[in-house]
User: Fold these one by one.
Assistant:
Number 1:
Amino acid sequence: MNIDYNETIPNNVDLADDRRLLRALERWQPAYLKWWEELGPVESGNLDIYLRTAISVERDGWANYGHVRMPEYRWGIFLAPPEANREIGFGMHKGEPVWQSVPGEYRSELRRLIVTQGDTEPASVEQQRHLGKTCPSLYDLRNLFQVNVEEGRHLWAMVYLLHAHFGRDGREEADLMLLRHAGDPDRPRILEAFNEKTDDWLSFFMFTYFQDRDGKFQLASLAESGFDPLSRTCRFMLTEEAHHMFVGETGISRIIERSCALMREHDTDDLSSVGGIGLPIMQRFMNFHFSICLDLFGQEKSTNAANYFTMGLKGRFQESRIDDDHKLDGALYSVPAVENGRIVSHEIAAITASNERLREDFTLDSQRGVNRFNKIVAEHRIDFEFTLPHAAFNRGIGAFAAINASPAGEIIDDAQWNRRHGEWLPTDADKEYVNSLMTPVIEPGRMASWIAPPRRGIHGQPLDYDYVRFH
Ligand SMILES: [Fe+2]
Ligand SMILES: [Fe+2]
């Protein structure tokens, strides 16, 4: 089914047949556009950007590429096609047909899941809004805006569910999505990692590598949901999320590539005189982003998580591929804990441990890319290895929140932490240096000094294509 872009809100959910819902969303739309103008990408109103837009939700051919004037981008509502006779795959309702409307008894839990996910989407747009001014190339500028418009669309996806299925409180929650702001001391975004600054491109690539990967794991477990509209919208969002992580992984890889080349060319580890980003600085940024993302998964042991699973609202990552009863009757899972100054592990009811399990899935997935980063370093015959810090490092939530630990997972006291955290987390000097490199490069095909060109352009276009046109 192709999407009709002549409608005010392009969609594949038959909005035209539901006048009340359509009117409600049409009332929300101007507030969204105003938010985009005020808190979306700065100074983007005059740009024509080579963007992909969803034109169908079928497996291939969903995306159309072309130059779009930024404010004229059309955000729409797209759900993956329904799966015939889909059944709930886990929890106490396993084997029952999926729900097309919200079961009354699970209403508040479902609303909370949707609001928490939805809140991260506009948050990331706000966090990234200044990056366009310092893009390392037109190719990267285009990718930034592609990510931004899709995060805006993800907000639309969640707002649609709130409007369509939660009545008045859903509409109120939709309004609140535009009133909380990343880093706002009075009305911050719900999750802490989405209040942090993302004001340089190294942070942006780390963000799209780690925070967007958190998004992948959250969306994948919501895609298992017994509430079918949530499942379908998450399945479509995952196709977009994959591109965000591609931007992150290739961005980090290109910086490593360039740094290694500069190290060899100038025979030095100190890249500050040659306009590159040293690998230890990158490691510190990685430590920061990875550790704050671990917090996004919540407490190791969680009754909320247990309820979401039992109720059939949020499954495990790739639930159907797991070989067990999908009810977790009597099953155990080990989670970390701190006892007498030592890290130990405890077996708890698996049903209460699904946050921990998802965090471990995320860690494994993150590690795969880090292995690829290390391959680049090794190809340059440079003696350096990126590592993900231990789960105990720099944590604000869960078993490790009360202690300090080194990236190697060794518990240390406050004095040692204060003395050494500058070795492990980005220092003011790191941030200042990275920021000093952030000068815009907007000549087609040219790259900033600190990043290698990408392997290929977007959608078969050459590297020196004018991915963004200025007026
Ligand atoms: Fe998203
Ligand atoms: Fe994303």
Note: The chain is about 45% helix and 10% strand.
Number 2:
Amino acid sequence: MTLAPLLHRSDVTVANPDLLPLLGRTPVARIRTDLPHAHPGFWAKLEYLGAGGMKARAAVSMLTAARRRGELRPGAPVVESTSGTMGIGLAFAGQVLGHPVVLVGDTELEPAMRQLLRTYGARLELVDRPAAQGGWQAARIARLREVLARTEDAYWPDQYNNPDNPAGYRSMAAELIGQLDHLDVLVCSVGTGGHSAGLVGPLRRRWPRLKVIGVDSVGSAIFGQPARPRLMRGLGSSIHPGNVRHRVFDEVHWVGPAEAVDACRRLARGSFVSGGWSTGAVALVSAWAARAEPGTVVATVFPDGPHRYLGTVYDDDFCHAHGLKATAPATRPLEIPHPRAAEAVGWTRCRTVVDPVAPVPVPGGAPLAAHVPAPGGAV
Ligand SMILES: Cc1ncc(COP(=O)(O)O)c(C=O)c1O
């Protein structure tokens, strides 16, 4: 199943139907490069080989559903806060469905990414300082509300909380079911929660014993760690996205930027496919999962390609300036019994997955929510 038939069946006018065959339909690659240790191999879904990258699936889904409900009028502007990848996806969806796109980013957005977004016809609004409470994400949302207030008919998809974001990944699930004979372990990076939430349902219906591993950034609040300034973009968040389905994960791993850089560079040199922070992080964890239980079939999603990251992940000066030194790579993650047991500063695994904003009582203690810092002060 691709999105094209869904759109053709719907009552939504498609401005540029010739673009639809470019969406999704991405290949899976068998990855065997040492990451950094030898492993039997895993499958990677190469989303950068579809137009607009992984987030184009979510973007087309959100805009189509909003059009169908009448929340987005034909030709009306779409406004979203993004650190990049969703911007590309929305630029694609805007062209498909005929909507101008306004993106609220921040000055941390890589110059090449800004240029790319403008090249695809999006208008950029950049905030130049983080909010005192809530960091860059809060500053972008404040500006987004200003843009919404002054733009007639503007529509905000709200990728963090919109259920049509996960729904956009049904097409990816259907592709994976067609591409893989069997699947034991799915490894997903988590940012808005969209692709993990969207994939798990259909994949578990096909393979009921499927184990799901979430991969987050160190310093991210999503799985109950304290929010800190983060270097890695894409995965992780300083807020608590409504689309993250904590209950679907069997375990969570936090990965640090130096580990992601090492994995990205090894992938690029040894497998010719690579990506950015989230790709490096999921590759590291997928290789470990394949090695930890020989015989298991492991698959992951590489959300985008390497080009956006030439000035960061693949730039020696950037890595040196940020202290991302090539150190002896770990063979396995550190284990912690609970997200609150210790703060992850490098690759760390936890088999207890909690929703930090759900009022779940912990034995002998206060509700977990009481231990979670307000989403402030972080990037
Ligand atoms: C490059 C990249 N990787 C991974 C993710 C995480 O995906 P999701 O938002 O579906 O959880 C994002 C989300 O913004 C992203 O931009």
Note: The first strand starts at residue 28 and ends at 31.
